[in-house]
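Data availability (excerpt). The following record was deposited with the supplementary files.
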Amino acid sequence: MRAISIALWVIAPVVLSGLTHVAVIKLGLFRKLASVPLDFGATSGGKRLFGENKTLRGAVVMIAATALWVLLQTRLSAFLGWRDELSPPFECLHPIAWGALVGAGYVAGELPNSFVKRRLGIAAGAAARGSLRVVFWTIDQVDSVVGVMVFLAAVWHPSMATVAALFGVTLLVHPIVALVMYFLGLKSRVG
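Predicted structure:
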């Protein structure tokens, strides 16, 4: 049960940051950053590296919002007396640094998948066809967790149970957030 609690604790600020990013998109904030793709238009083999959906706005909002949500989460946990239950793994860094690492890991974790999809001719935001559909759907759900784990590896060594819980919780939460984005008109598909 502790592993699931820690997984939820790690994922909560990322989910809230994702919803913050949805609000930023819906309100049309930071439009200049939205027009700057993370690959800056670079190509490989005549194809974009990551595509139009990976923007500077997304990266900046996810990193900054995750840092702020972690700071709020830390303050709230101290106020509610949850600190001893959940925070020991998170005390190795200032909450803003922890959140920035988590947010940057989330963003970076999605990039290799986008790169491979562009090489295979799968358009940004589109689903793979045939047998690759299930493979890429699964990778789409967990690639960000891999990025977060890589970025936190220098400062946090969770148990295998916690790692399994992180992947399990992500497989449940990620599609729910995609569904919310679909109903808000920010995604053309859920899976």
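Summary of structural features: Helices lie at 2-27, 31-34, 56-80, 83-86, 95-119, 132-152, 160-183.
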